[in-house]
Amino acid sequence: MKKIINTPHAPAPIGPYNQAVLSGNTLYTSGQIALHPETMELITDTIEAETKQVMENMKAVLAAADLTFENVIKTSIFISDMNNFAKINAVYGEYFNEATAPARETVEVANLPKFVNVEISMIAVK
């Protein structure tokens, strides 16, 4: 059985998907981009600000399922320019304890929704 997770504290879906789906004890999140949840405006002033907004959106989705970043077992990071990797990684790293950080892949892609610079999705377990 699956439970749909949606919260007003993260951007509303802009297509036929939900913010996350809980199946048993496993949460699968949709990718988050740097949309501010209240205004639905993109936060792209700097790659650091953009990444922080993505992570704050993800934090809200996790919280809606009564989870935290400590529950995350896998992340997928999609970036439009690998030259931004170090800056993205620095902000991302602020949200995890390095000793218990999840598995992860980071992939450079040609384009992302709304032509943003970073999108992140996660899998977490209760």
From TrEMBL:
It holds the Pfam family Ribonuc_L-PSP. Coiled coil: none annotated. It comes from the Bacteria. SUPFAM superfamilies: YjgF-like (SSF55298). Belongs to the RutC family. PANTHER family: 2-IMINOBUTANOATE/2-IMINOPROPANOATE DEAMINASE RIDA, PROTEIN HMF1-RELATED. NCBIfam families: Rid family detoxifying hydrolase. This is RidA family protein. It comes from Winogradskyella pulchriflava.
